[in-house]
Design goal:
The complex is a heterodimer. Chain A is built from five helices and six strands, in the order αβαβαββββαα. By secondary structure, chain A is of the alpha+beta class. In chain A, strands 1, 2, 3, 4, 5 and 6 form a six-stranded mixed β-sheet that branches. Chain B is of the alpha+beta class. Chain B has one domain. Chain B has four helices and four strands. Chain B has a four-stranded mixed β-sheet. In chain B, strand 1 and strand 2 form a beta hairpin. In chain B, helix 1 runs parallel beside helix 3. The longest helix of chain B is centred in the C-terminal third of the chain and has 12 residues. Chain B starts with 11 loop residues before the first helix and ends in a 5-residue tail after the last helix. The relative contact order of chain B is 0.17. Classes of the chains: A alpha+beta, B alpha+beta. Chains A and B meet through helix 5 of A and helix 1, helix 2 and helix 4 of B.
Chain lengths: ~210, ~100
């Protein structure tokens, strides 16, 4: 009998891990909602704070692991060398916020609640931070699944969600388009425009030109 | 600091993109590599991102005397990976 492919072994692993991934996602989302509740309850009319969570789907998880290999190709000779537990975002929570001052407040607060979690911010080409990203374990829910939470500005996060749901979710194999050098430039331009929009809006708020 | 919308992109990304375009390299979004069937060379996105434009230019220009595909990766591909990539790049349509 032919030996099983890397992909088949990973699919089996995914469904073995799924109950733990679900537990971790719910645990982390609940913790983050609890800790950010005082901020959520004190928001001004123009301010926003949205906590959302997601479980990485099987196809996305396999594709993410494949994309971590240089050349995006599994070495079928070493089929047992791969594990989905090496992914940091099987369980994910995203906090979207506006304005920046609120984001900083949320980031600082959560940092204190998850001091051992590893920071790995998403940066643009000019080294500006686009999103605060942390990964670690919710040991009360599972010791095997590493989870991730992000704290992102509202418009940037919504752009990523639209980009993901419109393009990459229906066809995960198109994900590699995002790393084309030309596409990276275009994405950078969109993100810079969104940041400028937010800063302009925030300027009105800080100058008191938006009625509470 | 306010971001400048519409600012020009004189960045390393733009320079590398121009070097690859000028040399006739195509992008395979499935494998995330830039390749030239004529030169039989393939550059991983990781290699391109981690090296200066001058290194990229020099690598494109250096003669390929093996007759086979040459892979510019940060970590040389394993044999089975090399064989699969060669097969994909040589003839079959790539993503």
């Amino acid at each position: 009998m032919a030996s099983r492919s890397v992909e088949d072994l990973l699919r089996e692993e995914y469904f073995d891990l799924l109950p733990a991934i679900t537990r971790v996602t719910e645990h982390l989302a609940t913790e983050i909602r609890y800790h950010t509740l005082p901020i959520a309850n004190s928001l001004g009319r123009h301010e926003r704070l949205v906590v959302s969570s997601r479980i990485k789907e099987c196809g996305s998880a396999l594709e993410a692991l494949r994309r971590r290999q240089e050349g995006k190709t599994f070495d079928q000779q070493w089929s047992t060398a791969y594990s989905l537990t090496s992914l940091r975002d099987l369980a994910g929570v995203r906090v979207l916020g506006f304005p920046q001052a609120r984001l900083k407040e949320v980031d600082g607060l959560l940092r204190k609640q998850f001091p051992a979690w590893e920071s790995d911010p998403v940066r643009d080409e000019d080294d500006n931070i686009l999103a605060h990203k942390y990964s670690g374990y919710c040991s009360a829910a599972s010791a095997r699944i590493r989870a991730e939470y992000q704290v992102v500005s509202m418009l940037t996060g919504l752009f990523w969600e639209v980009e993901h749901s419109a393009i990459y979710k229906p066809s995960p194999n198109l994900k590699g388009i995002a790393r084309d050098l030309g596409m990276q430039q275009r994405s950078g331009e969109v993100l810079r425009a969104l940041r400028a929009f937010e800063e302009e809006f925030e300027g009105f708020v800080l100058r008191g030109e938006v009625a509470e | 600091m306010r971001a400048e919308v519409g600012a020009k992109m004189p960045t390393a990304l733009a320079t590398k993109k121009a070097i690859l375009d000028d040399a006739g390299y195509a992008y395979s979004f499935d494998r995330e590599i830039y390749f030239s069937r004529k030169d039989k060379k393939a550059f991983s996105v990781e290699f391109i991102e981690d090296h200066a434009p001058e290194v990229l230019e020099k690598s494109i220009q250096e003669p390929s005397n093996t007759g086979g595909w040459r892979f510019y990766f940060n970590t040389p591909p394993a044999e089975s990976v090399r064989l699969e990539l060669e097969s994909v790049l040589s003839g079959q349509p790539v993503g």
